[in-house]
Amino acid sequence: ISVPVKLIQTDINGDKFVYVSVANKAEKRVVKMGKEYDGNMEITSGLKAGELLVMKGYDTINEGDKITTAK
Q: pTM for this structure?
């Protein structure tokens, strides 16, 4: 699994995380990273294939915020 580097954030504890959409709410997922290539970061743990990443507004939302998904 790889994600755009820009989606990976760092919390106050120094953990790297991304937001995923679960039941139209933002859910924080702490991730472990592998290698970076072409603007994407390999995720070695913390995400499952098929999960919906928050692609817009990821830097202004909080866990539990209501979100909408685009198809």
A: 0.89
